[in-house]
Predict the 3D structure of the following.
Amino acid sequence: MPGPALPPRSAVPEASASDAALVRAAALGDDQACFGIWKKYAPLVHRVVQRFFGPGPERSDVCQEAFLRVFKRIREIREPDALAGFIISVTLGVARNEARRLRIRGIVGLRPTDELPPGADVGYNPEAREEVAALYRLLSKLSAYERSLFVARYVEKMEVAEVAAAHHVSLSTAKRHLRKVADRLDHRMRDEPALSDYVGRLQERALP
Amino acid sequence: MRDEDQASRAAEESCAALGELVAQAMVERQPELAQWRALASVLQARRPRRWLFVVPAAAALVAALSITSQLSLSYRLENCKTNEGNVVGESGDGTVVFEDGSRFVLARGTQVEIQTRGFRRGAQLRLHQGHTSVSVVHRFARRWDVLAGAFDVHVTGTRFEVDWQPDHSRFDVLVREGEVRVSGGWLKEEIPIRAGQLLDVDGETNTVTVGPIPSAAAKDKPATLETVRPPAKAPTAAGSARSPRMARLSIARQAAPARPPAPSEQPRLGKPSLVWTGDSFGPSSVGGDDTSSDGASLAGSDGFIFTTIGKRTRFLPPASESPSHLYRQDAMLCTNVRVPALFCSGNSNSPGLESCDWDANWGVVLAWNPRANQRAWGDSTTGRISFEYQGAAGLYRLVAHREGDPDTRLYCVNAYASGQVVSPSDFRIECWTEGGALLPDFSSVDTFALHRPSTSNRQTLKLCISSVSLY
């Protein structure tokens, strides 16, 4: 019997399947569902990782590790529709671990902690290069946890409750820690004229 | 306090502005497919090695079996021989006698396989072919079954006979005392057969009969299956030579006109001139009644139905238990399959860059060869054809393959509906696109196939074909 004809292109799988369906299938080991999740959420993971680490080489290894952990823990998802939040939480966790590892490597002299590595600064608009570089110099002086809080709350614009859930702390603890991060950044911003000018210009523009 | 709140709010606004700076300054990039490939290979490598657990599990199983086998009912064979695990009745009636007094008497040539249950919980006798008389000594928590093909006779009584002729799809149960329950095979539900009743299942006529044991043949001696039903017909040469994967399709020929009708009289889409229906399908696993031997004038066909699947597709029960992977239900031939979802990689927004595992996962077909020798249909072909089928909602295609063409060169009708009458010009190469070459005629076609393709979702489906009609 000859092999049957191929279906049309319209029959190919899409990443538009609901998160719940993807999660259920991936939990059963369906490779295609894993691919669907990757296809749908890889831009998000790359974005979060890039925003966490700032200008520098692409952190595809961190992204890959984040997805590996997502697929390993996919059965732990209680609400399959909350897949995006779960992925951000895992990604921030992996990014924090990587930041700690880099810091230790810097301490023992394997790589400086506060200098950008050589190479192209991928993924950032060159017009804002100076301000962005100043901001990440500031962030590098925060702990990995504090940087993660900043990225989740002020860059990804997550609700405080979501930030708390993503960092496995209570709501009140998250609020307290966020306030502490904001105070520290605001205080240290004075050491970075490019940043304080940028924020000042923004606030002037916002005045009536 | 108020100053602290204002300072805190100002700090938060500064942070929000910094966050906005990052969000606006960053240029989002689409990850490359190579990253998925790298991830997929790591995922594959990290999958748990289930086989590591197989060895200890198998050892535990062997140990458990060795213990429980010591606790099985023992039996002895009288006038029987063993052949590759089967027990065969020899000259005279062979007998399998269990230690509790239960007896299975095997007619000459009858082949059975005996599997005792652990902890002395009875036994299961698989009747491959032949006739057995059973006398069971019933005990609490002891179960006896006779399996014949796909039929299961569960013993709840004491004395009965079972006859199974797989070559003729003939299955009979005669109960003398007590009761048995029969299920499986072509029976839709479990049937209790009580003392004095006879169950007769004839796969060739698709009939199931339960009635009293005829007494005419047994006035002076107890009725037996040999005395109450006619012997089965001898197998046809064509049927015995056919591959077991192929289900025979016998032909129910309608009254044909004495002469071919003039063109103006020919029905267009009216009543078909020749119909194959599920009512006339032979049993799926064996050759049926070859009534096509005198029907060569129209189709020259003793065609047969068979099913085939992609490498990643799996047959499900009851189809998986049938040699042909087909089974009969409600005058249809059916198969049950699980078709996995397509696995594709690439960018679905860029047609041509995407590749899917079509080769290994193309779905399932129910196919029909018009001629038993799988050659082209020939001059006696027809102008139009239709397939009636039942299956899950979705896309189906009717596919035709011409003799001599490569296996990959197929003509098809896209979105084929059950009963849709089609002519050769409806078939085209790559029917899901525009402009493929048309099928010139049916005479060169050696195979028609109803194709259910794989999709982006996993499918567990039952696909049945009820008739093939020619117009």
